[in-house]
Specification:
It is a single chain. With 207 residues, this protein is mainly α. Helix content is 66%, strand content 0%. It is built from six helices and no strands. Helix 2 packs antiparallel against helix 3, helix 2 runs antiparallel to helix 5 and helix 3 packs across helix 6.
Length: 207
């Protein structure tokens, strides 16, 4: 497919502001906890006014929440607040992403596999979040279990931003992408409000 469907690139200043705004949203949960996410993988979608930019906005918020959780100590009450915000936001994000984006992309034979892979990752992350939620968040060893979730989530969003979004973009018009953002915004709000933090320890490695 030609690149004629691609939304026009945004300036570096717009990208930087989008990232900063996403981090600020995470910091609002616990203003005193540092949100040191460092450098992030390069993506042309940050600050994009359509669906992919909106998804990266959430990704940057989640990167910040992960870093903040890792910066807490066992008895810090903000750890629980940050973790619960992460889980609810990821649940809402994933469900809305599947409804707004992947349900359409999956119907195109050229991008079906990318969509299936992304949705499969969501199910794996659900299990990892449930496993972490079921364990004692105040214990010294909790961060060891959390580290697996963090690594898997960061790998998932890296794949989306550097592979899956690029392939999906080729098959969607600019109008499609902007409409999908509107659908995502509506569904994210509703899905996050209804999100339940499940607790289930994994008895064997989650593949």
């Amino acid at each position: 497919m030609s690149g004629s469907f691609m939304v026009k690139p945004v300036s570096q200043a717009t990208q930087a502001k989008a990232k900063a705004d996403a981090i600020d949203e995470a910091r609002a949960v616990a203003p005193d906890v540092p949100a040191r996410i460092g450098s992030t993988p390069a993506t042309k979608f940050r600050g994009n006014p359509a669906i992919f930019g909106r998804l990266v906005e959430d990704h940057d918020k989640h990167r910040a929440l992960l870093a903040m959780i890792e910066a807490t100590v066992p008895n810090d009450p903000t750890r629980k607040a940050l973790f619960e915000e992460f889980v609810r936001d990821v649940h809402g994000h994933a469900a809305a992403e599947e409804q707004a984006l992947w349900s359409t992309v999956m119907r195109n034979p050229k991008t079906t596999e990318f969509a299936r892979h992304a949705v499969g990752d969501h199910h794996k992350l659900d299990k990892l979040m449930a496993d972490a939620a079921a364990r004692d968040i105040t214990s010294p060893g909790w961060l060891d279990h959390f580290a697996t979730l963090k690594d898997e989530y960061l790998e998932h969003i890296l794949e989306e931003e550097t592979e899956q979004f690029l392939e999906a973009e080729k098959t969607l018009s600019e109008a499609d992408q902007r409409y999908m953002r509107k659908v995502f915004e509506q569904r994210k709000k509703a899905e996050k409000a209804d999100a339940v933090i499940e607790k289930k320890i994994a008895l064997k490695p989650i593949a």
